[in-house]
Amino acid sequence: MNPPGPRVVALGGGHGLYASLSALRRVTERLCAVVTVADDGGSSGRLRRELGVLPPGDLRMALAALCGDDEWGRTWRDVVQHRFRSEGALHEHAVGNLLIVALWELLGAQALTNGAPADSAPPADALPDGALTDGALTDEALTDEALTRAAVSAAGSAAVARTFEPAPAPGAGAGAGAPVTDPTVAGLDWVGRLLGAHGRVLPMASVPLDIVAQVRGADPAAPDAVTEVKGQVACAKTPGKVLSVSLVPADPPACPDAVRAVEEADWVVFGPGSWFTSVLPHLKVPELARALTETKARRVVALNLAPQPGETDDFSPQTHLEVLQDHAPDLRVDVVVADRGVVDDPAALDKAVQDLGGRLLLADVAADDGSPRHDPARLAQAFVKIFRE
């Protein structure tokens, strides 16, 4: 029997996190994604504005990346990633987004993200007959607490048990008055169980966030002026140069399970991905940033294969690291992995890595088609080499 591998937490969102998770699930069975929750565009933005929930899109993509390569995994990956095409309200909504939000509503997560107490969740008699029934849940037991407990219990299947354990369910070794497990996390665990996900997916914060960027030259008529640009989509598409990012609210509550995963990890992986809108925001959630700085885990940075238009135009690989250090001066890095084919100045990059306290690994991790995409198998090989040293 093969060993389960190291406990790994991967940070990010969108296509970059999809790439790292697609590689990491080949390397370890104890994998946890901690995902940004600041998307304000597309299907996620519409659901966020209409229902007050966390934007589900980046969470959905992370779950899809953790699907296996068997028929079950491929089928459910395609289902949750499928987008409707229509002339009506469903146009461009992703099936997985709707599935995640439906589970959150059934489990009461909407009330929590809106700041209401847990006991304001929808009453049991508002659920359809047989909703979320499982062996541990009967029609007579459809209370909010029992529903959440059953969800977490069911989510403790092999797929979830291979990663970091969910918080104890009410009544399971906890005294009277113990807090009910976050239904947002329970809903994601349910979807992971359905997909047979090879790992666990958690939000980085318990409330929806907005990214605010300081941008030089956002207005072409004033190329030297620094202005504030708000919103993930606007920040990603700004024609100016992004200097720094912050969050609104400035002190959001971190997801407790995400903090615990970082504290218990053997390795933490930053990137690849949109640097200012997917990677750096994790370092602006104070409790999560503290955990990332103080954890005994070793830290890996996987660099992008190309600058991202708008966000990081003209960025060299070492510039990404300099910006990382600016946003988290106390963060130390153990290893930086970069594709040897995109590094024009290895000496300069090596110096930037050493300034963060780490060492540089140059490897062939790009796909063969010439696109700025990581090849999952090659990136997995690089992670294997890193984790074994």
Automatic annotation (TrEMBL):
Xref: PANTHER family: GLUCONEOGENESIS FACTOR-RELATED, UNCHARACTERIZED PROTEIN YVCK-RELATED
Signal peptide: none
Subcellular location: Cytoplasm
Alphabetical keyword list: Cytoplasm
Protein name as it appears in the record: Putative gluconeogenesis factor
Role played: Required for morphogenesis under gluconeogenic growth conditions.
UniProt entry tagged with the keyword Cell cycle: no
Gene3D superfamilies, sorted: CofD-like domains
SUPFAM superfamilies: CofD-like (SSF142338)
UniProt KW Cytoplasm keyword: yes
Organism: Actinomadura miaoliensis
Highest taxon in the source lineage: Bacteria
Protein family per UniProt: Belongs to the gluconeogenesis factor family.
